[in-house]
């Protein structure tokens, strides 16, 4: 399953340097899941373009697409939604920090690596429970507003 988003993610992918930067925990975790497609080629009507995009994505679950936005995938609907949910928050934090005009406080490489390793260790538990619980809660909220 995959989801696209066209909010803060779209704004960031339209910049000259569309990289998610290591300025906070969420950004650091989402960075490890992403691949970058720096080549916008127009509308993806050609089958070859689909293959090209899939090759750029490789084994990652998030594709940052230049001048367009992002594509987020997951092994389940709930995991794809979870990735999209936190990715959008990471983009939002970065864009809002950029709006201040101040220099961003980039985390050192060793802290980035340490945080990503910690997340990898925790994700075996979290992936079994976290994304499914989050998605179930969202479904309950939606059911309360419209059971159809």
Mean pLDDT equals 84
Helical proportion? 55-70%
Q: Considering the protein shown, what is the CATH homologous superfamily? A: Class II aldolase/adducin N-terminal domain
String of helices and strands: EHHEHEEHH
Cα shape: globular
Distance between the termini: 22 Å
- Structural Rg: 16 Å
CATH level-two architecture: 3-Layer(aba) Sandwich
Question: Main β-sheet: number of strands, strand sense, barrel status?
Answer: 4 strands, mixed
- What is the number of domains? 1
What layout of secondary structure does this protein have?
Layout: E1 2-5, H1 8-13, H2 25-31, E2 34-37, H3 47-57, E3 62-65, E4 69-73, H4 77-99, H5 109-145
Parallel strand pairs: 2-3
Antiparallel strand pairs: 1-4, 3-4
